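In response to a reviewer's request, we include the raw inputs and outputs for one of the modeled complexes. The two entities were modeled together in a single run.
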Amino acid sequence: MKIIEKIKTNKSADNLTEIQKICLDKLQSSPLPNTRSEQWRLSNKSKFSNFLKYSVNEKNPKFDTPFPNNSQSTIRLVIGDNCQINLMEENYSIKQLSEEKLVKYIKEQISCFDQNENWSDLLNLSLNCTKNTLGLKINGSKIPPIEIFSHASSNSLNAKTLIIFLEKNCDIDLLQVNLGKENSSLSQSTFFYLEENSSVNHGVVSYGENKSNLLNSLNVIQQNNSEYNLGSLHFKFNYARFEIRVKQSEGNAKTNIKGMQITKKDEQISTFTKIDFNGPNGFLDQINKSLADDKSHAIFEGSIIVPKIAQKTDASQLSRNLLLSNHAQIDTKPQLEIIADDVKCKHGATISQLNEEELFYMRTRGITLTEASKLQLSSYFQEIISFIPISKDRWNLLDKLLNEN
Amino acid sequence: MQSKMKESDPILEVENLFASTDNLPILKGVSLTIYPGEIHAIMGRNGCGKSTLSKIIAGHPSYNITNGDIKFLGENINSLEPEERAQLGIFLGFQYPIEIPGVSNLEFLRVSTNARRKFLNKEELDTFDFEELVKEKLEIVKMDHAFLSRSVNQGFSGGEKKRNEILQMALLEPKIAILDETDSGLDIDALRIVASGIKKISNAQTGIILITHYQRLLDEIKPNYVHVMSDGQIIKTGESDLALELEEKGYEWTDNFIKKA
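The model returned the following structure tokens for the whole complex.
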């Protein structure tokens, strides 16, 4: 367990926080992510080793983002950058959780962890210190859009944790941006708790650089009548893994997920989702898109759990994949696990290449093959990008995808 | 039949063209010459090679030319890419126009028009200028402006798709337009709109090839020449009354020409 030794040598055992000690114990009792488990089976071992090769860095480099902040109305927070926020406005409040409350909540979460499934969270929490953890309690209405950044530094392993409580009837647009740096690893764990009648449009944009790595874990708990909308995009990582776990704790909630991962060169990016309906009348609409070029590898594994208690669940999961090279690889496995007998669930997967007839049609109009491919790809991206809240136009995400990647 | 003296050079010359796909011969020696101002109709049974001929002239990458030449304004274009041919002024109106979900019709039309304009050394149009141009051209095919904000051909009826093809032709101002079964799937009114659009766009400098099964399109647009294709060859060429004779006697009548050949 090199990583555990690394954490221990980085700090003396006495300096470890209570959470770090608990997580380290759990990591020690379970081997490194078990490659025999379905969730880690396809993970590239050498790339994963690279993720762990950097020294743990609790310091934060100067924040430098390719995404400009020229919107006055957006609240921008950078995890670890002496991040302080306490807003009490007429219609809403955004309060930072005290350390005591954070520890209490995290301990509760850890007690529910599955060692294998939540390995990324255990690693994150064992690496992380309080200053790189941001906890927010959000209440009210007409809340300005919020952008939260996590960033890595070169030649380092950085860990950032975000915890968000949305109180009853609260409604927000929140964009989370994970920025990789050259030769870096970023471990990001996010915990979202949606109380009754709350609603969030959550965007996750993870944008790497040369040889950057990412372990991104997202845990969402939804209470009655809450609505969770997620638009996500992961690209330019040598190795990235996005884990989404959504639990509709009492059913009667809505979840919409539109995600995309783009791989080039010899990158590997994977998305794992587990949607757990723990009550009746739950709703899910999920689409995950992968685009793999060169010698890259994109993976999607999704599972929908519908136990007996989750009658009248309406769930749909679709995996759409575009293979742009004969040497690229795509693995996709949408799965349903249904015990309840009165449900409407469907899933499907397609893998295709750029449509030759569409390309020919465009070319007969004088559009070059490169431009025609771009037009086709932009239409492929558009469905996902339009679902990401806040700033997507200002950032020219589409241009980045088409021109930089 | 095309022996009379022409005053100008041909726009398109197809000379003894043989072509195949997946090693399957489709065209077996097609020759065809189109002069400015001429309208040619190509008729023939399904599977005789009419659509293949149009795709090969447009440069479809799935077909290989095994013998013969395609010349545009005297230059051999056998090895040109489809976009290069389009920029030169070759337009193919598709039998089944392709739907491109997510790509706005307006943007598609603007990019296409600018590609042709760039080739013609004309100034490229920005969104506002293009809107003005397209508004004028929409009149030709009696299309509503709302079609522009939809994805290319997505959710269009058969008639709307064909009108969208003619709109593209109007914007691109080709030297030669090959219209592959533009009349199929059209009701009488839509056929008249499309035919009138084609007539408005064509002029003494352009050539048109109409691929069709039916006389009704040729009632609206009278061709100078009618060619009958069978098994990858043009087996008979005549003037416009050949289409009427074909309508009356059917393709079985043309089988005699193959036997004679």
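As requested, we also summarize the result in words. The interface with chain A takes residues 58-62, 81-83, 85-87, 91-92, 94, 97-98, 100-103, 107-108, 111-112, 115-116, 119, 151, 168, 172 of chain B (CB under 8 Å). Residues 1-5 of chain B have pLDDT under 50 and may be disordered.
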